[in-house]
Automatic annotation (TrEMBL), chain A:
SUPFAM superfamilies given in the database record: E set domains
Lineage: Bacteria, Pseudomonadati, Pseudomonadota, Gammaproteobacteria, Thiotrichales
Stretches assigned to the Sulphur oxidation protein SoxZ domain: 10-101
Species of origin: Methylophaga sulfidovorans
Protein known as: Sulfur compound chelating protein SoxZ
Automatic annotation (TrEMBL), chain B:
Name of the protein: Thiosulfate-binding protein SoxY
Gene3D superfamilies (UniProt xref): SoxY domain
Sequence ranges assigned to domain Ig-like SoxY in this UniProt record: 57-161
InterPro entries: SoxY, SoxY_sf, Sulphur_oxidation_SoxY, TAT_signal
Domain of life of the native organism: Bacteria
Length: 105, 162
């Protein structure tokens, strides 16, 4: 199933550090929930999220099924200058992918 | 007959050599793109108990000194109306944090998230997890090659279908 909703990302400079907030649009089905007909919804969840700053990989998050629907993350990066490119890529267990990118301001 | 076995031997030698060179090249990391971090650890994420998940991911953990870490779960703390999205926050003064793992004791698969940090990343780290029922949430931090563990109890009104 393709995921069409858009991911959102914000990066802000605060006290010399970068604050990044990410909201990914993903249903995060665990494989244990049922649809309205009582049939199990197959598992589909994000497994791997990576964050790049100006082409350098700075963080990787591995998710299990217990990560909430439409995963939200907030973290800080040391330093940073206005115009830095922050990129997030994710992959789920079925191979669906997403990229979202923003500029630090 | 003699010729045939000779040929086979040569072919075998050739293959062995090319295989070993390939292995050498691969081990130096020339072939693969720079991979700092490992693959998705499926043993750890599909483990049924906290102990198994931890062992598969990190190994044994020791208890964290309370003042070195602030781990908040739920809002207001220790309580969540909806278990489907329980916020948490990790702040720590430990140096050289390499990895943070979040586990929910009573979930079918306890390991919720494993965060691999580089020196560029600063805490706090905030995110949301699913919690199936009233449970203990464990944060395991790996810093300087040592493991630290802290936990919080949380009660949820509506269990997150996890």
């Amino acid at each position: 199933m393709a995921i069409t909703a858009r991911d959102r990302i914000r990066a802000k400079l605060k006290d010399g550090d970068t604050t990044v907030r990410v909201l990914l649009a993903h249903p995060m089905y665990t494989g244990r929930s049922k649809d309205e007909n009582g049939k199990l919804i197959p598992a589909q969840f994000i497994q791997d999220i990576r964050c790049w700053r100006n082409g350098n990989e700075v963080m990787a998050i591995k998710c299990g099924t217990a990560t909430a629907r439409n995963p939200y993350f907030s973290f800080q990066l040391a330093g940073g200058a206005v115009g830095d490119k922050i990129m997030i890529r994710w992959v789920d267990n079925l191979g669906a992918k997403g990229v979202t990118e923003t500029e630090l301001r | 007959m003699m010729e045939n076995s000779d040929k086979q031997r040569r072919q075998f030698l050739k293959r062995a050599i090319s295989a070993s060179t390939l292995a050498l090249v691969a081990s130096t990391g020339l072939l693969a793109p720079r991979r700092v971090l490992a693959h998705w650890p499926s043993d750890a994420f599909t483990a049924d108990t906290v102990e198994d998940a931890l062992l598969a991911l990190l190994g044994q953990a020791q208890d964290i000194p309370e003042e070195k870490v602030s781990f908040k779960v739920g809002s207001p703390p220790s309580y969540a109306v909806n278990g489907a999205s329980v916020p948490f926050e990790v702040i720590s003064s430990l140096e050289n944090i390499e990895r943070i793992a979040i586990l929910v004791d009573k979930n079918p698969n306890p390991l919720a998230m494993s965060i691999e940090l580089t020196a560029d990343v600063k805490l706090p780290f905030k995110s949301m997890i699913k919690v199936a029922e009233d449970s203990k949430i464990i944060a395991v931090i790996r810093a300087d090659g040592k493991l630290y563990q802290t936990s919080r109890d949380i009660s949820v009104d509506i269990g997150g279908c996890s």
